[in-house]
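Subject: sequence -> structure tokens, single chain

Hey, anyone have a minute? Need the predicted structure for the following. Not urgent.
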Amino acid sequence: MRQIIRDMGMAGCTYVEPYAGGVGAGLSLLVTGQVERVVINDLDPAIHAFWATVQAEPEYLIDRLRKVPLDVKEWRRQREVYVSADTRDLPKLGFATFYLNRTNRSGVLNGGPIGGLDQTGNYKIDARFNREGLAERLRILSLYSDNIVATSRDGVEVITEYAAKNDTFIYADPPYFEKAGSLYLNAFAAENHEALARVLNSVSDSHWILTYDCQSVSAASRKDGEVLAGAF
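Reply:
Had a minute. Here:
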């Protein structure tokens, strides 16, 4: 991604992820000075809550991660907060999302805890929860909070808005075509994939990249018509 942005002469641009998730690439580009601003958008209220808290109240996350118990009882409590998706307290929801990401198998939010509920696995619930390491990563991100914009909108709307700006690079990585319901609170239906294809086709001259899982490409190849052709 860094090389693509350099080759396009877009160093210092605004980097946009309309379906953010972890935003690993974007934040790396921001911290290393390749881009000036990162727009983190996700319609999933839990994902948005986490990034909104990173941007506005990183010290809350740092304080909580240093003190929170790492056991199944706490895991169940944080999962209840996550499933409720109550956006009236964004920091609380954001931390629950963070907690599950770090304590669940493969970081899948709707999955189970590392080591299982009985904690008999080879690795336990604290295997990926390095308190000081995570606190330092959050501290570094807090230094760039003025350059992070966290929103919770339909990704198509975000693409439409930012594709019109010359100094913007869009990385569209939408939810998986298959198994999306088990991975996200806000999964994609077929019509959502089609809407995304249409909007990207309509801004084909803008600066964007699209990535998909293999199942999405296979499904698209079986559809009749042009609506998905440009997106793959």
